[in-house]
Design brief:
single chain; 380 residues; alpha/beta; Purple Acid Phosphatase, chain A, domain 2; 2 domains; 6-stranded mixed beta sheet; 11 helices; 18% strand
Length: 380
């Protein structure tokens, strides 16, 4: 936990420094010192609130609203700094002759009020609108040799809901209603749903009530956050439902010209043994399948796309990355800490999909809305 707070403080310090620099480029000299002083005061106060937050005896809704507002404030600072930096870079590249620093600053000052307004608007949109604006994304999956029983078979995927402060049971119910409205044949939930011990049992019961809305049921694999919470409680709650939990195993859904199997793998814990367990889990879930079967693998971590490709898996549904939560035209703008970050990937004959998630532990999304991904099997 100490390591987490140190990383968080380092990130916030970097954002504050960027905003401090950007302010120097767009605020007139006479007001610069005062504006920087106010920014420093608010930054320090907000960090103090973040550190004290877990110890404050406040209603849950008040904590939730406060953290959302703080995230908007800090993201607005980041966007402001990046906006000014990009503008300076563009002007530097386009200019034939470099301007003096004084002339460049005068040009920036002409639109001084615009930059913080744009940053504030983007911050508010990401924290208050897009974070909960779920979209439905349709992805066709062409497969050779399938019979009429699989033509038009629809798989809806949700992932990374993260029950807790920023995603409650009522929001989960709305999401399930949206997923059911897609007319999907099955619902796949690829981990990190059960992330709050106080809500997990009720969430399993709620999810179970929707199994009848999907003709071939609801299928689930564990993510790392299920392991972070009371996993025994979650497993016991799921065992009382008709939800199909796939833990390094597979199940036949439909027989036909090319039978359809759903397979699923657990999340390899601990992280130090990830690679070894990854290979073992994949072999247990996919090894020995008859040639010609259509196989869909549920795997929380996208690294399983490569493992599944070695077994000729047709479709891999994963999550975990949240798509970076910040992007532009579908491309994540955060550092690529994962090989597969967001969207569709092809590895051999295998189609892999990295879901951007429906919830978050950091309440902000910009250019990366939560989604319900719907995959429709088609004859190639």
């Amino acid at each position: 936990m100490l390591f987490f707070w140190l990383i968080l403080l380092a990130v916030l310090g970097t954002v504050a420094g960027l905003a401090w620099w950007a302010m120097g480029a767009v605020v007139p000299g006479g007001r610069l010192s005062k504006c920087r002083s106010w920014l420093l005061l608010v930054d320090v106060a907000s960090i103090a609130l973040l550190l004290a937050g877990p110890r404050l005896s406040l209603p849950v809704e008040m904590k939730r609203s406060g953290l959302i507002l703080l995230s908007i404030f800090w993201m607005a600072q980041l966007i402001f700094g990046v906006l000014v930096a990009l503008l300076r870079m563009v002007r530097f590249v386009l200019q034939r002759q470099p301007e003096s620093p004084d002339m460049e600053r005068r040009r920036l000052l002409r639109g001084a009020a615009l930059y913080p307004l744009l940053a504030a608007a983007a911050g508010a949109y990401g924290g208050l609108v897009e974070r909960t604006a779920t979209v439905v994304r349709e992805i066709p999956v062409p497969l050779p040799g399938i019979g009429p029983e699989l033509e038009g078979f629809r798989i809806a995927q949700i992932s990374d809901i993260h029950l807790g402060l920023f995603f409650h049971l009522d929001e989960l119910e709305r999401l399930l209603e949206q997923a059911a409205a897609t007319g999907a044949t099955v619902l796949a939930v690829t981990g990190d749903l059960f992330d709050d011990n106080e809500q997990n049992v009720a969430a399993a019961e709620l999810l179970d009530r929707y199994t009848g809305r999907f003709p071939r049921g609801i299928w689930f694999c564990y993510g790392n956050h299920e392991h972070f919470r009371d996993l025994r409680q979650t497993k016991a709650a799921l065992a009382r439902t008709s939800i199909h939990v796939l833990e390094n195993e597979r199940s036949l859904l439909l027989d036909g010209a090319r039978p359809l199997y759903f397979a699923g793998v657990d999340y390899p814990m601990p992280r130090t043994a990830f690679a070894e367990k990854e290979q073992d889990f994949t072999a247990r879930a996919l090894g020995g399948l008859a040639p010609g079967a259509v196989t869909v693998l549920l795997a929380h971590h996208p690294d399983f796309i490569d493992d599944a490709a070695e077994y000729g898996t047709d479709l891999v549904l994963s999550g975990h990355t949240h798509g970076g939560q910040i992007g532009f035209l579908g491309v994540p703008l955060v550092p690529p800490v994962f090989k597969y970050m967001r969207g569709v990937y092809r590895v051999g004959r295998t189609l892999g999909y990295v879901h951007p998630g429906n919830g978050s532990w950091f309440p902000f999304r910009l250019g990366c809305p939560p989604e319900i991904a719907v995959f429709t099997l088609r004859r190639a």
